[in-house]
Amino acid sequence: MTETVPFGFTLHGQDGTARTGEIATPRGNIRTPAFMPVGTAATVKAMYPGQVRELGADVVLGNTYHLMLRPGPERMARLGGLHTFMNWDRPILTDSGGFQVMSLSALRKIDEQGVTFRSHIDGTAHHMSPERSIEIQGLLGSDIQMQLDECVRLPAEHKAIEKAMHLSLRWAERCRVAFGEQPGKALFGIVQGGDVPALRIESARALTDLDLKGYAVGGLAVGEPQAVMFAMIETVEPHLPQAKPRYLMGVGTPDDILGAVARGVDMFDCVMPTRAGRHGLAYTRNGRVNLRNARHAEDTAPLDETSTCPAARDYSRAYLHHLVRSNEILGMMLLTWNNLAYYQDLMAGARAAIREGRFADYCASTREGWVRAERAAAG
User: Fold this and answer.
1) Rounded distance, CA 165 to CA 158, Å?
2) Chain segment 133-163, per-residue pLDDT in tens
C-alpha cells in the first residue's frame, strides 16, 4: 500500500443525473456506482474474502458498533487493523454506529455529548461520543469513516426530526476536528432531516460548508415508502457538491438502487443480499426466487444459466431447494454467493450503461426482466 496516494473522486461520465466515476484510495480504486457488501463483524457472512473480491467488489463495509464490542478496537489495532484481521486488502468503509444505536432504543440514552448504551451481547454500559467514534474507526484502520449521527426512524414528529438533524450537524463538526488530517483517508458527513425537505436542504448545505471528502444520505430506508426515499434524494442532490461522492446508507433492493443511481447516488450498502441468501431467497436477472417454495423441488434448471457465477449456473433449483429446506450451510453459502454476484453485475451494468448514455434503457430492460419472470411464475 502506498500512503502517498491521495483520496479523491473523478467523474468519468454522466447520463442525466446518473453518474459513473472512481474513488481513489491508497488501497485501490472504487468504481462507482458501487455496492459495498456488508461485513458487519469483520466478515461478509457465508463468503470467503477471495470470493467477494472475485465478484468485483472494490470495497466492503465494517460495523463500528459491533466491532467496538467484539473484539474491541484497541485489540484490533494490536492485531494489525481490520484489513489484516479479515484478510481484505482493498478499501473498507466503517459506519459510525449511529444506526445500530438507534435500533437499541430501549437500551440507550442520547445527549449532547454522545450516546450511552448497553451492549446487546452482555448488557455492559458504553459511551460513544463523536470523538470516540472517530477514534474507534481510526483504530480499525478504516479508509472511509462516517460521522456519528442520530438516525430517527420514520414516521416521526417534525420536532424530533429537526432536533436530531441539528444534533447530527454539531456532531459532524466535532468529528471533523477529531478526524484531523489523515492522508489517503476520508471522513463523510451524513445528511439527516427525515422526510422534511427543508430540513434535508439545511443539513446538506451545512455539511457542504464543512468541506468533507464525501457525503452520505442517512435516515432513509427506515420505514418510509420508496417514493418518499426518492423524493428526499431528489431534494438533497442539488445541494451536494458534484465533485464529491454520494452514499445512500442502508439501501437496498435492486429497484431501490437503480432508482437512486438515476438520482445521482454513487455508493450503496445493504444486508439484503446476504441476509436473503441465508434465508433461501435468490436475486437474479429474472427477479427474486424463493427456494423454499415446493415448486422448485423437481426443477432441474439453474437459477441463471447465463450467469458467470457458479452458484447461479452450476446447481439446480431442486438441489438448492433441498439444501434450504434441510437447513444446510452450503445452501446459505451458494445463495449468498449468487446474490452478491447479481448485485455486482447490476452495478457493472449500470456503470457501462451510464458511460454509453443508455442508462434509462438499461433500467427499463432490467425491470422488464423481473416483471416478465413474475408473470410467467404466476401464470
Assistant:
1) 11
2) 999 999 999 999 999 999 888 999 999 999 9
